[in-house]
Amino acid sequence: MTVRRIVALLFAVCGIVAGQTAQNVLVLVNQSSATSRAIAEYYVHRREIPLANVCSLPMPVSEVISRAQYDSSIARALGAFLKSHGLLEKILYIVTTSEVPLRIEGSDGRGGDTASVDSELAAFYQDLHGHPHALPGPLRNPFFGQRDAVFRHPDFPMYLVTRLTGYDFPDVRGIIDRAVQAKNRGRFVIDLRSSDDAPGNNWLRTAAVTLPANRVVFDESDRVLTNQTDVIGYASWGSNDSHRKQRDLGFHWLPGAIMTEFVSTNGRTFRMPPATWTLGNWGDQHTWFAGSPQTMTADYIHQGATGASGHVSEPLLGFTPRPEYLLPAYYRGRNLAESYWMSIPAISWQNIVVGDPLCSLGKPE
Question: Quick one: fold of 22-164?
Fold first, then answer.
């Protein structure tokens, strides 16, 4: 059976599922950070988030925290807030903000307990219902691949967590403003690193054939696609394509545009590199920034994307966002949070999603 035939069967009964509303969003604020507070204030105003859904907690102003710090300064206090405000079931989306800690330090590898704060919060629903999730290692994402399902509790025992962050406040304000302006137009740019049958390449191919042909720019040659116009979605190998040398692809991103790439450390930090820094190689530490030579999620936001994925540490290829779920879901009208988390196989892991969870292109015309 051909890939196109498989896709046709998969989507034959697939309807467009309406996203949820501002009433279902909780905003998590680092009370100790003026930047975090400013972002929350701007977002709450723009999206009319109920003030009762804003949880401001004193946290370390640090990208990296210990497991004990996560438990004491975030998990316990947030759990108490959700319970005391009667929000356990009502909240579907949690939005973290810049200077809410990014990564929980620990051991790496498939059996490790390093994780992003956001992915730990995705598993938090289970913890609050008396089923503490196991550590270490990734936990199966119950929403992964659920193309036709309405995301709601208790059907899916998790929160969908996104982060409003960038290099600075203007970057984050841009995310929020562009999310409000999003429309279902533009092109999905899908760039393979070669024509072989590596799993990532096949996922990219499947993504391409699930979208309307007149909305797709697809390339499986060795060249890197640059200077594309009217981009609404992008998927590639990022700096894991050996032919990619530049940080900025020169894209014109439309409001609402999202991206994903198969890169291990692109969400490692949201500190801005020097303007002279460019992509490096693992063999020369002088070419690294923040412990890695790889592309950075924040660059895409800075250059005009509205949503982006990333990893705070090595996730392994099989746990990166799957573009064949992400891009078609977003095109068909799923909101940003649901589109991304439907495409991510694991929670309590390394993944982060940057963007406004309510951002949606609307149904295709």
Answer: Rossmann fold (3.40.50)
